[in-house]
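> forwarded from #structure-qc
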């Protein structure tokens, strides 16, 4: 698997278009990364509004800006329970069905999670279990760069394998550079001499490189494939297990007693 940088988009609207295309047309699961202090809400808002036009029923979950996104909170939002502390086993099952069965009028489900870097292990385990159980579930996890660390555990190798595209929103410096590049482009078009145009073009390249260096990544046109953004590589055995799980996934499969017990214990441990 070749290492590559996330696709970098210098506007939220362009990132939204790519996210919609990836989920609706290429059936991909997506990570959307932004720098601390910035928000991915506008991108997911646009995606939520558009994906339903492509046969996807959207399930939106809002993580806390600080602190952990617990399993109780995750499932409570999925089943629209006002008091997550009163979560029952029936709610765990209902949330699982919501994620794995598209329902009438839809052919797939899209789970959109903001502040996904705050997902606690039990909540991440629930999302992964739903992905294992239904090939019709698409997941978009939006959050800060720490999201890669949250997915780095060997336990979540399957979920990392499902995420085949990572999009990165610009930081403050990159956003300001967009305007400078537009100015340079207009100068290049209006410059009289070839030397002037060449000099301005070179300045544009240097500006792009400087912005990428400042943010810790140089923009590239490559796509982050499964596991590239994770802190640890996926082992061959994990790849085989993930492949087998996808091949044998059954839409609408119910939670087994063992899985339900594991999730219930996760709730108690939070």
């Amino acid at each position: 698997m070749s290492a590559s940088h996330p696709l970098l988009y210098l506007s939220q609207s362009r990132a939204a278009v790519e996210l919609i295309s990836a989920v609706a047309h290429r059936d991909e699961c997506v990570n959307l990364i932004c720098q601390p202090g910035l928000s991915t809400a506008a991108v997911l808002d646009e995606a939520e509004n558009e994906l339903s036009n492509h046969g996807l029923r959207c399930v939106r979950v809002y993580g806390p800006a600080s602190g952990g996104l617990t399993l109780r909170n995750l499932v409570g939002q999925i089943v629209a329970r006002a008091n997550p502390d009163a979560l029952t086993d029936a709610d765990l099952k209902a949330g699982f069905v919501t994620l794995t069965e598209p329902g009438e009028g839809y052919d797939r489900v899209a789970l959109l999670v903001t502040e996904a870097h705050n997902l606690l292990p039990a909540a991440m385990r629930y999302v992964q279990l739903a992905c294992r159980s239904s090939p019709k579930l698409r997941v978009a996890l939006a959050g800060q760069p720490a999201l890669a660390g949250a997915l780095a555990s060997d336990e979540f190798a399957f979920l990392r394998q499902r995420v085949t595209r990572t999009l990165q929103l610009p930081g403050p410096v990159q956003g300001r550079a967009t305007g400078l590049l537009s100015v340079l482009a207009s100068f290049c078009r209006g410059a009289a001499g070839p030397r002037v145009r060449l000099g301005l073009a070179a300045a544009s390249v240097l500006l792009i490189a400087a912005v990428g260096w400042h943010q810790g990544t140089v923009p590239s046109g490559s796509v982050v494939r499964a596991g590239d953004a994770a802190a640890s590589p996926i082992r061959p055995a994990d790849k085989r297990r993930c492949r087998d799980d996808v091949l044998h996934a059954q839409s609408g499969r119910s939670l087994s007693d063992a899985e339900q017990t594991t999730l219930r214990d996760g709730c108690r441990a939070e």
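QC bot note: Residues 213-252 have pLDDT under 50 and may be disordered. The longest strand covers residues 56-62.
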